[in-house]
Design goal:
The chain is an alpha+beta fold and 257 residues long. It contains 5 helices and 13 strands. The chain has 2 domains: 5-18 and 131-256, RlpA-like domain (Barwin-like endoglucanases, Beta Barrel), CATH 2.40.40; 35-125, SH3 Domains (SH3 type barrels, Roll). Strands 8-12-9-11-10-13 form a 6-stranded mixed β-barrel. The chain has a 5-stranded antiparallel β-sheet with strand order 6-5-4-1-7. The chain has a two-stranded antiparallel sheet with strand order 2-3.
């Protein structure tokens, strides 16, 4: 089923919310704090949420390109201290990459194409698979492009457009795929960009989750008309997931045959 025309405002609404997060808007910040974010008072407290087996960082140098992971929900800031504004809140278990810069026990990292600072007490070094070793979706890469991402989710609201893709097939979310309950993740794009069912890989998601993820272009909406490959909407499980930094970042995409 083709998504309703009301969907035309959906991606821009999502971008507006993400932009508000990046500015540290008070209303959004309060909501984030209510979801177990580490506030400024205890951000550098140390042991909260950490098990004794985890080797959290304490200010030691970390080489650029090192894979890190958050151990709890933690603030992602514009600078190395609690006096710097918060960009967003990173979820527990979020994969990050170190830039090599360290100051005041904070580490500069990249997350979903964004660069910011996280306190080392809530970071551990990931041992094992590195981005260059991430397994790939079977098939030949025939093309690649860069696209700006947003997120949407199955919902009866006019803003989201329903539960089915443009051919009436139930939408499949990223979270369903990761849980082994879907064989691909639905993506919405301009209908002139690709034929229905075109398979994609997205570098940022493979780096984050350390596994192959198959995306398919199966959906669209008025907001994508004339956008070609420059815009894409990733189907996720709910509103909160649609605000994820990776989902709303600059995405490096490969077309797979």
């Amino acid at each position: 089923m083709l998504l309703s025309a009301a969907m035309t405002t959906r991606p821009w609404t999502r971008l507006a919310v993400v932009f508000a997060l990046s500015l540290g808007a008070a209303s959004v910040g309060c909501a984030a704090d209510s979801e177990s974010a580490v506030d400024a008072a205890n951000e550098g407290a140390g042991e909260e949420g950490l098990s004794e087996s985890q080797d959290e960082l304490r200010g030691e140098s970390v080489a650029a390109g090192t894979d890190l992971r958050t151990t709890v929900a933690v603030n992602f800031r514009t600078g190395p201290g609690t006096n710097y504004s918060r960009i967003t809140v990173l979820a527990a278990g979020r994969g990050l990459v170190a830039t090599g810069r360290t100051q005041n026990a904070f580490y500069e990292v990249t997350a979903g194409g964004n660069t910011g600072w996280v306190h080392g007490a809530y970071l551990v070094i990931v041992n094992g698979t590195t981005p260059s070793e991430v397994p790939t979706v079977p098939g030949q890469i025939v093309d690649s492009f860069v696209s700006d991402g947003t997120g949407y989710y199955p919902s009866s609201s006019a803003l989201e457009g329903g539960f089915n893709d443009r051919r009436g097939v139930p939408l499949k979310t990223l979270q369903q795929y990761l849980a082994g309950n879907a064989d691909y993740v639905a993506v919405a794009m301009d209908t002139n960009a690709f034929v229905y069912g075109t398979k994609l890989r997205i570098t940022e998601f493979e780096q984050r989750y350390g596994r192959p993820i198959e995306f398919r272009v199966v959906d669209t909406g008025g907001a994508f008309r004339g956008k070609g490959r420059s815009r894409m909407d990733i189907c996720v499980q709910n509103y909160n997931a649609s605000l994820d930094a990776t989902v709303n970042g600059r995405l490096h995409v490969q077309v797979v045959r």
